[in-house]
Amino acid sequence: MIKECTLTVLTENRVNDPNLFAEQGLSILVKTPQAVLLFDTGQTDTFIKNAQQLKLNLHNVAAIVLSHGHYDHTGGLPSFLKSVKPVSIYCHPALLNKKYREQGGTRINIGVPWEKTEITHAGGKIIFKTHPFEIFPNVWFSGEIPRHSKFESSDESYRQRVLESYIHDELHDDSALILNSKNGLIILLGCGHAGVINTVKHAMRITGQKKIYAIMGGMHLQHSQEEKIIKIAKHLKELNLEYVIPLHCTGFKAVNHFYRLFKDRLLLFNVGDALNVA
């Protein structure tokens, strides 16, 4: 098990420090004794600028994990490869599908803002995984997450292009990063499109670990009905986890419900904040 680790928010929708930058998106630097990883890259090179300001050395990053194929989680990848170093990138193959969102009668491109050739030419090695994969000891890429929870349905506004048709995108590429620490599992979510509870139960299955230390990341509940939020909060409470750290697309309504249940075990992080496990 991982004896110690530090997870620092490099890109997030909120910021307090005037020397740091926020943007819609997510990027988290994960430092363990085994390796340093980057979970998502935001939508621009903002995460690189914030890392420099925080005096965090990105040249130590051994691999990048991309949670899913939306621009605000993948857009900064070319900047990292060109200005920092070439590394291996772990993701689900459906991450490269052409992705859209329908809003007010308009179809908006929200997919990755680069082509695979741009990444390979910059030295990046994309490693597709659909099944759980242990990247480093006790550091897991979830692979595709089974969806058993009936109340965690996917957003109907998402579309993907298949030939000349636009069909519902169930975001099968949605993946998580799982750390098996001495205090329990630390589960990183990009947006949690596969469902927060689905993701947690999947992480428990593949690691054999029943104790959850922290869930950290976007949970895509900002437009969800209150009934769904209450059910998710209740299920999380039953897991007796130590910390809930809602970021990015979780939404204020969900955060309020989480606070009622978790009190001081709810951590509201901004850009530059870090979870230290020792």
Q: Which residue ranges are poorly predicted, with pLDDT under 50 across at least 5 consecutive positions?
A: none
Beta strands, count: 17
- First-to-last CA distance: 12 Å
**SSE order, one letter for each helix or strand:** EEEHEHHEEEHEEEEEEEHEHEHE
**Would you give the CATH topology?**
Metallo-beta-lactamase, Chain A
* Gyration radius from CA atoms, angstroms: 17 Å
How many domains make up the 3D coordinates?
1
Assign a percent range to the helix content.
Answer: 10-25%
CATH class wording: Alpha Beta
List the total number of helices: 7
Could you give me the name of the CATH homologous superfamily? Answer: Ribonuclease Z/Hydroxyacylglutathione hydrolase-like
Second CATH tier, the architecture: 4-Layer Sandwich
Strands in their spatial order, largest beta sheet: 8-5-4-3-2-1-17
Summarize model confidence as the mean pLDDT.
96
Largest sheet: 7 strands, mixed
Class derived from helix and strand content: alpha/beta
Broad shape = globular
Beta content comes to 25-35%
Which tags fit this structure?
278 residues, alpha/beta, Metallo-beta-lactamase, Chain A, 6-stranded mixed beta sheet, 7 helices
Describe the structure.
This protein has 278 residues and is of the alpha/beta class. It has a single domain (5-277), classed as 4-Layer Sandwich (Metallo-beta-lactamase, Chain A), CATH 3.60.15.10. It is built from seven helices and 17 strands. It has a seven-stranded mixed sheet with strand order 8-5-4-3-2-1-17. The chain has a six-stranded mixed sheet with strand order 9-10-13-14-15-16. A four-stranded antiparallel sheet has the order 7-6-11-12, with no helix packed on it. The longest helix is centred in the C-terminal third of the chain and has 13 residues, at 226-238. The chain is globular and about 45 Å long. The model has no long low-confidence stretch (mean pLDDT 96).
